[in-house]
Each structure stands twice: as structure tokens, then as C-alpha cells.
TrEMBL record:
GO terms for molecular function: cysteine-type endopeptidase activity. Residues 64-85, 677-697 are annotated as: Disordered. It comes from Drechslerella stenobrocha 248. GO terms for biological process: proteolysis. This is Peptidase C14 caspase domain-containing protein.
Length: 717
């Protein structure tokens, strides 16, 4: 029986900061001024958590409020947000919660830079949001310890990796060390001045306290004097989501909001704004919350450099266990008999057998009570790669009576299909009675994907083979005889979950392969690759050279810049003056990630005299087996379109496969991307032009850059 997760929360808000009494020695190099909106942040979050059913006894608050006395806050010492109290409550929650429970941690207060990692290669403002950063507890100016990013990261890592909890962490503070001029309305949550490198006995004791809880391999590493100088796990978390108020070189603040009764942290206010708007309906994903906050901040203060940052699992429902898959809505172009034409086709990954849901006129695609009509793609258009025909299933069902489907109605992918029949072979091991009946269960899950079959009778040549490692007793998947790397470890002992997890991985790998194979030779009217310049550059803008196999080579952690240019008409034969382009990364974790343009934009229009550039940092993902190669290869792909109706390529996106089956999102929700709008006119008419071809066919193509990333101990040359 599935565990119904409990929800726990630790809410930290610091308006009051103790100051040294007159005549006492100064202990810190920085002075933290009082804040006004942090405790109000905590109260707002507490109210929201209670409204969604979080038990009051599982919500813990540590707050420091300004009281009548200038020398002490309202709260009693045990309820104050000191380093020891915060760690005590984090440890208590970790011990009390059960595997699978959901944990929410909120911090509103001052943040500061402590030190810059040498590996950052910069001074003054290097590192990231966590490494070298610290949170300022209420007593930090009278000898109390900083709560470093490393301390917090170690505690959260223990929650996630050892206790198998899913953690949400919201940090409404900043770590820049910059000070901005304070106004009557807007206050920056960082003290003026530089970083604070002071080390007090309390800081050293804090390191030892963390080591006593999380083990000697963390903060007590003898090679490092203090935990605050070490890279923080929160910079790249797994099984955890972190939302910060700003980037590491920016300042976060609190502002006065008329409907809130005073000041709020800007991040917290707009976060609560979208959560309350969605009350009673589906909970928005972390990505949706982050985008909403970012848009609202820009609208209230256009010149304010405060951009929230999301780390970790952004595709889950906020403080939930449900994966939220956001897909673009396509549209009905024409209706006839029991079929519809859709503005989605081969170029965007559509295949015969794929299942879409059609939303009739007046049916809100975002409503949980919507009753769409299922449709199966039966034909891909022979003249356009952006069009297909789908047959409506059960349109006369009583639930659909009175429903009207007409051009412009939206449709959304529910189940993709493979381009051609793909067979999987299961090689059962000897002496494994625990796998009795496994093949039948596996077949049920595998064949939920149209075009994917378990080859039970060995009548067809299999593409994939599932075996059990003779020594490690782990499941392995082979493609045409070659072992596939970086697939989830199947650690579950339950036969049904093992089969479901393997089928999930196989579906994703097969879909990934289909999309990666789709190239310029498959299009009805392809663009000429020679019309474009698609290159990779180093951190200083220098053009990088390819190896003899045509692959660029970089080292782990290296930043690179991608450039794309439509060549001048004198240097090409085509008549293009502009194209629409979108960039994706096909990565070694079997994911397809959209790189550029960002959320809210399907494609970016570029003209022949302009060059598009964006930067990415290459990294090697965690290995799931000792046999996985250390080197990895990414494919940066540009989807280029020339025509009147730029398509969305967002349906190609695939989430990365996780490192083990306990992190596979078997419980998920599909949401429509809100920015997609119906086309103003059909991409082409069924009887337009000669032989069904429109008078002006769109053209498209793909360009690939392959990048091999090697460990830093190796040489890229």
C-alpha cells in the first residue's frame, strides 16, 4: 500500500537582530539592521499551509519580532531563530518524519557572503547562491554562529539521501554582500559592505555540531578549516527543490504592499499571490511559481535587479509529490466526419498512434472538471511536417453530448507513440523465484506506449534487451547489444514497481532515440544547413576546435557560449531574410531540455545581420553504475523554421531520468503551457494549392553541436 505522505514545515523569520551593548567588544565586521517583513512572511506562509491541510502541530515557527524593548525580541529564547535552535528543529523533523514525507523550510531574514571559493576563479562575488554564503541568525552580532549554506545543505542532504524525504526550501534573503540605499518603502535584506570573514568560537562549534549530526565526512573535513568554505550540496540538489530570492550577485528586499498590512519579502509576497490564486485548483509547479514571481518583480520595479533562482526539481507541484509536466497545446485546424486535422506533425515528434485530448468549444483546458474527447493520430500529413489527422474516440459518449469541436479548439498530448514498432526482449535469470510473474507485469506496462512491445515469442529482432547482472543482481538494459548508461537504479523489491520503473525508462529511451534520429533528411521541405553558422565558443569568446570525430571537447564545469547566425544572402543560395529558432540539449541522462528562448517564448526570430548567443555550463551528471563512463556527450540542437506560422517545439521536452527508481515520477499531472495561443489561421488548407500543397510551404531543419565533457583531471586538448 502506497505511503500517504505527511507534511512538515519549519518557518524562520527574523525582524530583530541583537546588537552589542554599549561598551561591549564588537564581534562581527558587519552590522545587521532590523527588518520589518520577515515575521509577516512567516505568518503568511503559516496561514497558507494551514489552508491546504498541513497539521498545525507539524508547523514549527522560529521568529524574532521587534518588541517594546530595543534590546530584546518578543519571543522566548527557545523559539528564537538562533543557529542551535534551527539545527535542533531540522534534526527533530528529520528524526520524526517517515520516508516519503514532504518537508517545507522557509527562511526570511538577512543573508551575507562569508567567503569565495577558490574554485570559483573570481574575487568578491564568486561562487553561487550557497557556496560561501550564510544566513544571519538573530544573535549573530553578539557572538552567535552563522548558519552557513554548507550547514543547511548538509542537513537537507541528510533528509533527502538518508531519510528519503522530499524537501522544499524557500530562501527570501540575499548573499551578495552589496548594500543599496534604503528607501522608506524598499529595504535590502543584506547589510552594506563587503563579505564577513570573521570566525568566532561559535562558528567552529557550529561546524562540530553539524558533523555530530550528519557524520564526519561533511563539515568536519580536516582539510578545510571551516564548513563555510566548502561547496554546498544545495547548489545542485537531487530530490529537493530550492527557490532563492535572487542570484548570488544581486540583492533581495522587502517592500510595502497595501493589501498585506505592511512590508513583505518581495519573493514571499508574490509566491503567496500565485498560490492563493490557485487555491481550490491544481497547485502550480515550482517553475510556474518562479516565473510568476519574476514577472511581478519586473512589473513593480523595472530597474530592480532581483531575479529569483530555482535549483533542483522545478517540475513538481509546489510543496507536493506530484510531477507537473507542462506541454504546449496544439489546435484543431479542420473537422470532418469523426476526424480532425491538428497543427502538430512529424517535425514536432508526432507519430501515428499518439493519443491527444481535444477540448471542445467552451471547455477550459485548465479546469480540473474539463471533459476532453480522446483522439488518436491515424495519419501524418504527406505534404506538411506540421500537420496530422486524428480520429475522435467515442465522440457520442453521454459525457460529450452537446460538445462542439471546431477549428481553433485546443488539443494536448497525453501519450506519445513511437515512429516504428520497437520490440523489447526479457532474459529471465535462473534461480530467481522472486521474479515469478514478472514478465506478464512488464508486458502490461511496456505496451501502454503505442509502438512498444514485449517480444515474448522472439518472433521479431529486439531493439532492447533487459537482463539481470549476474553479480550485482541489478537490472540492465541493452540496445542492439550495447549496455545503456545512466539509467535509474532499480532498488525496489516489489515486482510490480520494478516492472513499472523499467517500462518507464524504456519508454523514455525509445522516445529520446526517435527524436534524436529525426533530422534534415526526414522533412518534406528541408532548409539547407549551409545557410547557417552554428558554433561553440569558450569563456573568452574564442572559437573552440572539434576533435577529428567532429565533436567538441570541454571539461566538467566549463562555461561555453553557443552562437547562431543566418549567413548573409551573398554567402548562401536561399532567399531567407529571417528564421525562427529554438535551442535544445539532448543530454546523457536521456532528457531533452529547452535552452533558449526562455519560458513564455516558443521560438526566437533572428535576421541575417544578427547573431544569437547564449551561455551554458557543461557538467557531468551522477553515474548510476560503476560501469557508466566518466565522459559524457551532449547534443545541442537548433530547430530552425522559415514560414508564416512559427511552431512550438516544446512538445519535444523530456525530463531527465533520475538516478534511482524511488525518484521516478509515477504520479504526475499534465498542464497546458498558458502562453500558447490558437493560430489566427490554419497553417494550410486541406484543398489549397496543387495536390493538397499550400502555395507557400514552410521549411525547417536541425543543426547539431556535439560536446564531449570530460572530468577535470583530464585534458581537453
Amino acid at each position: 500500500m502506497a505511503h500517504n505522505p505527511e507534511r512538515w514545515a519549519l518557518l524562520i523569520g527574523i525582524d530583530f537582530y541583537f546588537a552589542a551593548e554599549a561598551g561591549e567588544a564588537k564581534t562581527r565586521s558587519l552590522k545587521f539592521h532590523h527588518l520589518t517583513g520577515c515575521v509577516r512572511d512567516v505568518r503568511g506562509i503559516e496561514k497558507h499551509l494551514q489552508s491546504i491541510g498541513v497539521c498545525t502541530t507539524r508547523i514549527t515557527k522560529l521568529t524574532a519580532s521587534k518588541g517594546e524593548s530595543e534590546s530584546k525580541p518578543k519571543e522566548d529564547p527557545r523559539s528564537l531563530p538562533t543557529h542551535s535552535n534551527i539545527i535542533r528543529e531540522l534534526d527533530r523533523i528529520t528524526r520524526s518524519a517517515s520516508p516519503g514525507d514532504l518537508i517545507y523550510i522557509h527562511y526570511s531574514g538577512h543573508g551575507v557572503r562569508r567567503n569565495v571559493l577558490a574554485s570559483a576563479g573570481t574575487s568578491g562575488e564568486g561562487g553561487d547562491e550557497f557556496s560561501g554564503a550564510a544566513f544571519a541568525p538573530t544573535d549573530v552580532m553578539i557572538g552567535g554562529a552563522y548558519l552557513t549554506g554548507y550547514h543547511l545543505g548538509d542537513m537537507v542532504k541528510q533528509m533527502v539521501e538518508q531519510k528519503k524525504l522530499r524537501v522544499t526550501l524557500t530562501l527570501d534573503c540575499c548573499f551578495s554582500g552589496r548594500g543599496l540605499r534604503r528607501s522608506e518603502s524598499y529595504t535590502v535584506r543584506t547589510p552594506p559592505g563587503a563579505v564577513d570573514n570573521s570566525v568566532l568560537p561559535s562558528d567552529e562549534q557550529a561546524d562540530r555540531a553539524i558533523a555530530a549530526i550528519t557524520g564526519p565526512t561533511s563539515a568536519s573535513d580536516p582539510k578545510t578549516r571551516n564548513a563555510m568554505f566548502k561547496p554546498c550540496w544545495l547548489s545542485n540538489p537531487v530530490g529537493c527543490t530550492v527557490l532563492t530570492a535572487c542570484q548570488f550577485n544581486q540583492a533581495a528586499g522587502e517592500d510595502r504592499f497595501a493589501d498585506a498590512g505592511g512590508k513583505h519579502g518581495v519573493l514571499t509576497y508574490w509566491m503567496l499571490n500565485i498560490l492563493q490564486k490557485c487555491s481550490g485548483g491544481p497547485t502550480p509547479s515550482f517553475s510556474r511559481v518562479k516565473e510568476h514571481v519574476e514577472v511581478k518583480i519586473k512589473s513593480m520595479r523595472p530597474r530592480l535587479a532581483q531575479s529569483p533562482v530555482l535549483h533542483g526539481d522545478g517540475d513538481y507541484a509546489f510543496f507536493g509529490k506530484e510531477l507537473v509536466i507542462e506541454r504546449p497545446a496544439c489546435h484543431v485546424l479542420s473537422v470532418y466526419d469523426d476526424c480532425v486535422d491538428l497543427d502538430i506533425g512529424r517535425a514536432q515528434g508526432a507519430a501515428e498512434g499518439a493519443i491527444y485530448e481535444i477540448y471542445p468549444e467552451g471547455c477550459d483546458i485548465d479546469s480540473p472538471n474539463a471533459t476532453p474527447i480522446e483522439a488518436h493520430i491515424i495519419e501524418l500529413d504527406g505534404f506538411s511536417d506540421f500537420r496530422s489527422t486524428a480520429r475522435l474516440e467515442h465522440p457520442d459518449h453521454p459525457m460529450h453530448r452537446g460538445a462542439t469541436i471546431k477549428p481553433g479548439c485546443r488539443a494536448m498530448l497525453q501519450t506519445w507513440a513511437l515512429e516504428s514498432d520497437t520490440f523489447v526482449q526479457w532474459n529471465p535469470p535462473e534461480g530467481r523465484p522472486d521474479l515469478a510473474g514478472f514478465e506478464d507485469v512488464l508486458k502490461t506496462y511496456i505496451e501502454k506506449t503505442p509502438g512498444l512491445y514485449l517480444n515474448s515469442d522472439f518472433a521479431s529482432e529486439p531493439t532492447f534487451t533487459i537482463s539481470v547482472h549476474p553479480q550485482h543482481k541489478t537490472f540492465e538494459i541493452y540496445e542492439n547489444g550495447k549496455r545503456l548508461a545512466r539509467l535509474p537504479r532499480i532498488v525496489s523489491k516489489d515486482v510490480e514497481q520494478q516492472a513499472e520503473s523499467l517500462a518507464y525508462a524504456l519508454r523514455r529511451v525509445a522516445r529520446f532515440r526517435d527524436i534524436k534520429r529525426l533530422g534534415n533528411d526526414d522533412g518534406c521541405n528541408p532548409l539547407e544547413p549551409g545557410s547557417f553558422l552554428f558554433q561553440l565558443h569558450g569563456e573568452s569568446g574564442e572559437h573552440l576546435r572539434k576533435d577529428t570525430d567532429g565533436v567538441y571537447r570541454v571539461v566538467d564545469g566549463q562555461s561555453v557560449t553557443i552562437s547562431f547566425k543566418l549567413l548573409n544572402s551573398r554567402n548562401r543560395e536561399s532567399d531567407l531574410d529571417s528564421v525562427d529558432v529554438a535551442f535544445f540539449n539532448l543530454n546523457p541522462s536521456w532528457g531533452i531540455q529547452k535552452l533558449y528562448p526562455g519560458p513564455g517564448q516558443s521560438v526566437h526570430k533572428t535576421h541575417e545581420k544578427s547573431t544569437e548567443r547564449f551561455s551554458i555550463q557543461m557538467s557531468i551528471p551522477q553515474r548510476t553504475s560503476a560501469e557508466d563512463p566518466e565522459e559524457i556527450e551532449d547534443t545541442i540542437r537548433a530547430y530552425v523554421y522559415a514560414g508564416d506560422q512559427p511552431p512550438s517545439w516544446d512538445e519535444l521536452v523530456l525530463e531527465d531520468l533520475p538516478v534511482e527508481d524511488t525518484l521516478i515520477p509515477l504520479d504526475f499531472r499534465i498542464d497546458a503551457i498558458k502562453t500558447q495561443e490558437p493560430q489566427k489561421k490554419p497553417a494550410m488548407q486541406r484543398n489549397a494549392g496543387v495536390n493538397g500543397r499550400s502555395t507557400k510551404e514552410p521549411r525547417w531543419g536541425v543543426l547539431d553541436i556535439k560536446i564531449r565533457t570530460i572530468p577535470r583531471t583530464s585534458s581537453p586538448s
